[in-house]
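Sequence only, no structure available. Ideas?
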Amino acid sequence: MARSVLVTGGNRGIGRAIAEAFRELGDDVAITYRSGEPPEGFLAVRCDVTSAEDVDAAFAEIEEKQGPVEVLVANAGITDDTLLLRMGDDAWSRVIDTNLTGSFRVAKRAARGMLRARRGRIVFISSVVGMLGSAGQVNYAASKSGLVGMARSIARELGSRGITANVVAPGFVETEMTETLSEELRSTYLAQIPLGRYATSDEVAGTVTWLAGDAAGYVTGAVIPVDGGLGMGH
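Reply:
I predicted one. Tokens follow.
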């Protein structure tokens, strides 16, 4: 039976790969996007996760058109990198509000329907940087690390209602962003990865769909790295 799935930031990159993977499983998939033209084949809803009003409106539309959200993938995120002593309050707040507070907003809103149904899957898309740290990414690393504590707290609160909350922590992934890196920088990054290559978006998507499936029904509060071994021990 098709489930109602929502992937935030599902219009490109990892988010789009996740949305496509759920669609291939036969699920009804909604995506949120903030700008540009969304891909076809999904219920695409314009939504800025930094706005509580936008989030409420998006969920109302999704619930009307494909039913209450049964699987939430909180993927929407941004970067605004600079070294600590150069980082302004705006750069800090913008990243935290989108990546961490935005994920809180959509998880809280999705939990309403999941509690009524007494089942649900919540997956937060974090990053190896959340555990490993990264110079120039104090704001981003803090936001991605925060998702772990949030997921584990939700897992404890909602587990008795059949709702799981987990975290997927990708490493370097072949996306438009990594394609713009210089060869020197790519070589430096690759040298740190035991598997010697970047992940594909589909490999991240496969982990997310597994967590949302029956086979992972007893997995909650977990942090699953998809990083080629980059973050081992963290």
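The longest strand covers residues 163-170.
Hope that gets you unstuck.
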